[in-house]
Design brief:
alpha+beta, 4-stranded mixed β-sheet, 4 helices, 36% helix
Length: 101
């Protein structure tokens, strides 16, 4: 199966897409990993989660001006509707996503 382009991934029709920009060397990213998995399973079938390693996907990181990791960007119908950098509680992430699912 061909890898989808980043643009194809975020233009997912019908469901919002949460992009998690991370790096393997980033402590807060590692701390957020179980939170992101929890949110992904909570919204299973209603939300697409895409993890983007900024070290191996520098073009996507620079396209969205990702300055620090983790950075979360929520896309709805291809449009960026929310963005936040840094670790956050699962409840906060859930509240944001609930507005779009």
């Amino acid at each position: 199966m061909a890898k989808k382009s980043f643009q194809e991934l975020i233009n997912s029709p019908g469901m919002p897409v949460l992009v998690d920009f991370y790096a393997d060397w980033c402590g807060p990213c590692k701390a957020m990993s179980p939170v992101v998995q929890q949110v992904a399973s909570q919204f299973n079938g209603k939300l697409k989660v895409v993890k983007v390693n900024i070290d191996s996907n520098q073009a996507a990181a620079s396209q969205f001006r990702v300055q620090g990791v983790p950075t979360f960007i929520l896309f709805h119908k291809g449009q960026q509707v929310w963005r936040q950098s840094g670790a956050m509680p699962a409840q906060q992430l859930t509240q944001v996503i609930q507005q779009y699912v």
